[in-house]
């Protein structure tokens, strides 16, 4: 029966080279993940799509290209399939567009062209899954907690604050910087981010900005959906990017690296909950002040991460 199960992945690493927002470890993170998916989890290499902004990259991780890859993956999905999206790059928080939530902030990731992909886009992808397929998102970016809109929190914010004892770059671009960059593209003088994104990206802009008034009606979470989010930090925290000097010779994202360490030390199957709790411990031991979180249904909290086959 397992033969019919496909495993599909989209891996995105954005280092934003030669910009003031440059990171160093994001491409390394997803290249390492590709190897793990193939060697450990039995993914067919032809079912793993890698998008990076490395110089000479044929398909850049723009907002449109990332969404096209994710939509293509969801379109191919059938019951029992395992879908995985690993993102390593910048995140941001944008003021909520709902009048009632004016002081709330919503989570988004920042593709290389700043065409934001938001929590609403991920909610829409999860809602489109065929029954019995799962969609796991591992987001190594700042403010990544809550990246699937309305997903149930299983391992939430920690009240314990670790004392940061390491030097690193944070994987966030503040909202004002995003706004400034988009204003330079559109030459429109407004602080309304929707105006800029719709003007510059049109139909490729996030659903959040194209359908703000319909958002809550169209995209309610399903009673129990199959979205699983492992976030590198809480919604109000930053995630760390280590350059080669700080990282002891290799640049990496702290959360991606922690997950790789957990998997290396535990060859057997691990639940989603265990992966997140163990990654928290690794980051704490390394002196990082970020707390990975888990958002999914009760059943998926204890389900095996990426449905790793039992050892024969």
From TrEMBL:
<comment type="similarity">
    <text>Belongs to the peptidase C14B family.</text>
</comment>
<dbReference type="InterPro" id="IPR050452">
    <property type="entry name" value="Metacaspase"/>
</dbReference>
<protein>
    <submittedName>
        <fullName>Metacaspase-9</fullName>
    </submittedName>
</protein>
<dbReference type="GO" id="GO:0004197">
    <property type="term" value="F:cysteine-type endopeptidase activity"/>
</dbReference>
<dbReference type="InterPro" id="IPR011600">
    <property type="entry name" value="Pept_C14_caspase"/>
</dbReference>
<dbReference type="InterPro" id="IPR029030">
    <property type="entry name" value="Caspase-like_dom_sf"/>
</dbReference>
<feature type="domain" description="Peptidase C14 caspase">
    <location>
        <begin position="6"/>
        <end position="297"/>
    </location>
</feature>
<dbReference type="Pfam" id="PF00656">
    <property type="entry name" value="Peptidase_C14"/>
</dbReference>
<dbReference type="GO" id="GO:0006508">
    <property type="term" value="P:proteolysis"/>
</dbReference>
């Amino acid at each position: 029966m397992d033969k019919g199960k496909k495993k599909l992945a989209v891996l995105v690493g954005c280092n934003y080279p030669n910009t003031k927002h440059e990171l160093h470890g994001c491409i390394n993170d997803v290249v390492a993940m590709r190897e793990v998916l193939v060697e450990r989890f039995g993914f067919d290499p032809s079912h793993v799509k890698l998008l990076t902004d490395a110089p000479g990259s044929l398909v850049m991780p723009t907002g449109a290209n990332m969404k096209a890859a994710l939509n293509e993956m969801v379109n191919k999905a059938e019951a029992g399939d395992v879908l995985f999206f690993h993102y390593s790059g910048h995140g941001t928080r944008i003021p909520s567009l709902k009048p009632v939530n004016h002081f709330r902030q919503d989570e988004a990731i920042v593709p290389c062209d700043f065409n934001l992909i938001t929590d609403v886009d991920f909610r829409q992808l999860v809602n489109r899954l065929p029954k019995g397929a799962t969609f796991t998102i591992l987001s190594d970016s700042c403010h990544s907690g809550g990246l699937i809109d309305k997903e149930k929190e299983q391992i939430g914010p920690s009240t314990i604050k670790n004392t940061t004892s390491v030097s690193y770059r944070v994987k966030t671009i503040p909202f004002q910087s995003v706004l400034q960059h988009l204003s330079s593209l559109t030459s429109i003088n407004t602080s309304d981010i929707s105006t800029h994104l719709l003007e510059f990206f049109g139909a490729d802009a996030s659903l959040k900005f194209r359908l703000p008034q319909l958002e809550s009606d169209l995209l309610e979470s399903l009673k129990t959906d199959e979205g699983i989010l492992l976030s590198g930090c809480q919604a109000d925290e930053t995630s760390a990017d280590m350059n080669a000097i700080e990282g002891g010779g290799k640049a990496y994202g702290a959360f991606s690296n922690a997950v790789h360490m957990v998997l290396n030390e535990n060859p057997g199957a691990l639940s989603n909950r265990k992966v997140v709790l163990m990654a928290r411990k690794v980051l704490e031991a390394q002196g990082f002040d970020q707390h990975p979180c888990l958002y999914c249904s009760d059943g998926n909290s204890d389900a095996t991460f990426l449905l790793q086959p039992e050892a024969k």
